């Protein structure tokens, strides 16, 4: 097996070259656009590169090859990273999040720029508006990187199928994000069982498909993969993507800021109606549900109130049940790889990735 650091390095180098080329375009417009270049480069310098790694393993599952800097799969993997960055920029605006990966979120960076320069007007409004534009710019750049990858393919049918996969992913994750913010407002219109079902749907479309299944399929399609190979990768990717989001649900409530880069209990302050919350509510008496519903979504929650919600959720057994569901989903994902028509070394890589995304520390 190749060094697991090879792909992240290739993707980072491609991103660096791409951002340099786009920074020169921005500089010709005005020196004042430098913030776009600086913030996008900083935002794309970190992260676990899970989507890029799944894309690569999807490609490798078909080709059995190791990527080099000139392979189209590197640009495709980089495109997913840029798309993810755009989604995070917009997501942080929607959630009014102050931090991302241990540093200020994009809109807070622009807001700080306004305050430090002592410009006129509303610093927060400037921060939000500028970050929306940065997210839009990143979305466009992700398309450019994908076009670069697909234009290099000799198999035009494969290129068209890969483009269709990317388009579907983009539509589904946007719809999933909308359902997420809708549920924060409309949850009270549905009974407890329906709330859990709706949370599961959000987990599939906001995260599972976009984080794991679609990147795998995109990589396999770029490689010219057949239907049996695509089916095996999807059968692996969807349950693993659900496990990935369930782990995120736990991290959003119980995660250590030093590990997650976001404050502990952030999902509680944002009012996320996750699978974890749905399972906890089903197990709570009426008084307990009332407590959760009164506190969940209050951006001014104190440390003591966060601790109270955490203990309330844990005491229902929802954490243990969610851990069981994560383990079952990972087992389903790995079982889909057994006897699948995929490269054996890529199967090893996929198995290791399944453990990496489902066992992230609190």
Automatic annotation (TrEMBL):
Cofactor: Mg(2+)
GO molecular function: metal ion binding; prenyltransferase activity
Keyword check for Metal-binding: yes
GO biological process: isoprenoid biosynthetic process
Keywords for the protein's UniProt record, in alphabetical order: Isoprene biosynthesis, Magnesium, Metal-binding, Transferase
Keyword DNA-binding: no
Pfam families: polyprenyl_synt
Family: Belongs to the FPP/GGPP synthase family.
PANTHER family: FARNESYL DIPHOSPHATE SYNTHASE
Name by which UniProt lists this protein: Geranylgeranyl diphosphate synthase, type I
């Amino acid at each position: 097996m190749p060094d697991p650091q090879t792909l992240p390095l290739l993707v980072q180098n491609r991103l660096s070259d791409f951002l340099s080329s786009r920074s020169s375009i921005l500089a010709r417009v005005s020196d004042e656009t430098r913030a776009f270049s600086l913030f996008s480069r900083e935002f794309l310098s970190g992260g676990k590169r899970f989507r890029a790694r799944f894309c690569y393993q999807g490609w490798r599952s078909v080709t059995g090859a190791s990527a080099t800097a000139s392979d189209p799969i590197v640009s495709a993997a980089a495109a997913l990273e840029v798309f993810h960055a755009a989604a995070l920029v917009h997501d942080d605006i929607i959630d009014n999040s102050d931090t991302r990966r241990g540093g200020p979120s994009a809109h807070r960076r622009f807001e700080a720029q306004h305050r430090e320069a002592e410009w006129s007007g509303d610093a927060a409004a400037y921060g939000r508006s500028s970050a929306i534009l940065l997210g839009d710019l990143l979305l466009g750049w992700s398309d450019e990187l994908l076009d670069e990858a697909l234009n290099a393919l000799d198999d035009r049918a494969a290129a068209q199928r890969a483009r269709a996969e990317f388009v579907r992913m983009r539509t589904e994750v946007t719809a999933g994000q909308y359902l997420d913010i809708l549920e924060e407002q409309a949850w009270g219109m549905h009974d407890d069982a329906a709330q859990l079902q709706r949370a599961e749907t959000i987990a599939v479309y906001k995260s599972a498909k976009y984080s794991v299944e679609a990147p795998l399929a995109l990589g396999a399609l770029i490689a010219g993969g057949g239907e049996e190979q695509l089916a095996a990768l999807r059968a692996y990717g969807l349950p693993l993507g659900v496990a990935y989001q369930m782990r995120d649900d736990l991290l959003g409530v119980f995660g250590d800021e030093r590990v997650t880069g976001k404050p502990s209990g952030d999902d509680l302050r944002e009012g996320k109606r996750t699978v974890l919350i749905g399972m906890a509510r089903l197990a709570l008496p009426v008084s307990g549900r009332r407590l959760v519903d009164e506190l969940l979504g209050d951006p001014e929650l104190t440390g003591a109130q966060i601790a109270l919600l955490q203990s309330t959720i844990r005491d229902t057994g929802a954490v243990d049940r969610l851990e069981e569901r994560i383990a079952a989903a990972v087992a389903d994902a790995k079982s889909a790889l057994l006897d699948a028509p995929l490269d054996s070394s890529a199967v090893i890589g996929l198995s290791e990735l399944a453990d990496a995304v489902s066992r992230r520390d609190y």
